[in-house]
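Structure tokens please, single chain.
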Amino acid sequence: MPNPSKYWREIPQRYRLEAGKCTKCGFIAFPPRLVCPQCGNRKFEKTKLADSGTILTFTIIRVPPHQFEDQAPYAVGIAELDDGVRLTAQIVDCDSGVLKIGMRVRIEFRKIYEEGAAGVIYYGYKFVPA
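Here you go.
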């Protein structure tokens, strides 16, 4: 079960796709980090991630975790955004038969799942064909 307080602390990154850009070497970290893995710098400035990219790989989930049983089968992929950052997300609004490596996608903010009938609703980003 996810930790709701941790989820709420991460909202700026999840909702606005905020990343940290190293002020020394320009490395973009998502989610933001305290130390740059490229140069060791500890100073970052906020930057917004690109909202579109290209699918590098994907898979079809046929036996999902219980929170996603009503969505199966569904696709999950890794896309390289136009700024070079790689993200993993569910791919929606298309039949899995049309998915292919190199396909252009854009990021949309969507409901991820709901924790029980009266629980927390989790939102985040998903990939949609461009």
